[in-house]
UniProtKB/TrEMBL annotation:
One of its GO terms (biological process) is thiamine diphosphate biosynthetic process. NCBIfam families: division_SteA. This is Uncharacterized membrane-anchored protein. The chain crosses the membrane at residues 334-352. It comes from the Bacteria.
Length: 373
């Protein structure tokens, strides 16, 4: 196996996505590659992925590597070598068997992850899932006790200008299958015109569909400058102690943002904000709601999400995966039937309309004269 191509590097895969081009080699440091990261790399049409961490650590069955292999993206784990100290963006490297070369000098030893290798690792991970689940539950219960004020209403929620009282609110997270789910509920969005909240990159997800977010909420690490400029309000998720690293970026852009100190995830506080502001219904797209989702985000529990969903549950509709439940397809027989149905009134009109019948008789006479018959 040999390949020669330029590289792009970033220890955060989501930061790399916006910079890497088709045909380049992605060098990442991403333990347990998740589905969202894999799909993003596939969309960018990378030639190969070289991971400085274990693509499948064995803690749980992450599906990112399988998606990469199904899309014929070469995947390697680094066995030996520190690529982030040696390479820079644009360097031309060569993959030769299980070696990575720069200027004909070996800089790393690689392990190729074939289909069979990925499947074997996933089988081992499946055997560890019960152990990981037990740890996850213990962590969730421990942190739920510590974060109980999160649901008891003792948070100081910032004042906002967007009116949500008795309105429907759509909270969009750029999670797995967000594009398909948004496409499925797009008629609902156009008809009901809900208040649009983008959670970090969820704001750009809305822009993909020509929708401008009313509010962007998050730590501001994965939303574009364009989206921040276009949206109507910005809420920066801060640590419980008030420290908000994301506010510096907002200030550099010359924008204003409210700070929301809270534990948990940004999607949690987005739902809590909508609930506090009197939303009649909260529709969530792309959110994280199970153990695998949270392990892929590097979280060891889901206490805040568990508590928030307990609180807002009566108003929450989770649209994640709705595209798999319902798919509207136009089959060829439907088109034929529609065409026949459209012809029926035309045929009836031809038979009952005297002027049209006379017109056809005139055309028939002219055709016979032209043909001499």
């Amino acid at each position: 196996m040999e390949m020669k191509a330029p590289v792009k590097l970033d220890k955060k895969t989501k930061n790399l996505i916006g910079r890497i081009n088709e045909g380049e080699i992605a060098i990442i440091d991403h333990s347990d590659i998740d589905e969202v990261a894999a799909n993003s790399l596939i969309t960018r049409r990378v030639a190969a992925v070289i991971n400085c961490s274990k693509s499948i650590s064995g803690r749980y069955p992450n599906l990112g590597p399988s998606l990469l292999k199904k899309s014929n993206v070469l995947l390697f784990d680094v066995v030996k070598g520190n690529l982030f100290n040696v390479l820079k963006d644009g360097d031309i490297v060569e993959i030769r068997r299980n070696e990575l070369l720069l200027d004909n000098t070996t800089i790393a030893t690689l392990e190729s992850l074939s289909f069979d290798k990925v499947n074997d690792l996933l089988e081992l991970a499946e055997q560890n899932i019960e152990v990981e689940l037990e740890k996850f539950i213990d962590n969730t219960l421990t942190y739920a006790y510590e974060e109980k004020n999160f649901i008891l209403g003792k948070l100081v929620i910032p004042k906002i200008e967007t009116n949500m009282n008795n309105k429907q609110v759509l909270v969009v997270v750029r999670g797995q299958n967000y594009q398909e789910d948004l496409q499925t509920i797009f008629p609902y969005i156009k008809e009901m015109k809900p208040v649009l909240i983008g959670v970090d990159g969820g704001g750009d997800a809305l822009l993909e569909f020509g929708l401008i977010p009313d509010i962007i909420i998050g730590d501001m690490d994965s939303v574009s400058d364009r989206c921040l400029t276009l949206c109507k309000e910005i809420i920066v998720h801060a640590y419980p102690n008030g420290d908000a690293p994301g506010i510096d970026r907002i200030k550099r852009l010359g924008l204003h943002g409210e700070i929301f100190p809270a534990p948990g995830t940004s999607e949690d506080i987005a739902m809590l904000l909508a609930y506090d502001q009197g939303a009649d219904l909260i529709v969530a797209v792309g959110t994280h709601s199970n153990m695998i989702d949270f392990l892929e985000k590097g979280r060891k529990g889901m206490s805040s999400t568990f508590l928030v969903r307990l609180k807002v549950g009566s108003k929450l509709i989770d649209a994640k995966g709705v595209s798999k439940l319902y798919k509207s397809t136009m089959k060829i027989e439907h088109v034929v039937l529609f065409f026949i149905a459209a012809l029926i009134p035309i045929i009836i009109l031809l038979f009952i309309s005297q002027p049209i019948r006379n017109l056809f008789k005139l055309l028939t006479i002219r055709l016979r004269i032209f043909l001499g018959i």
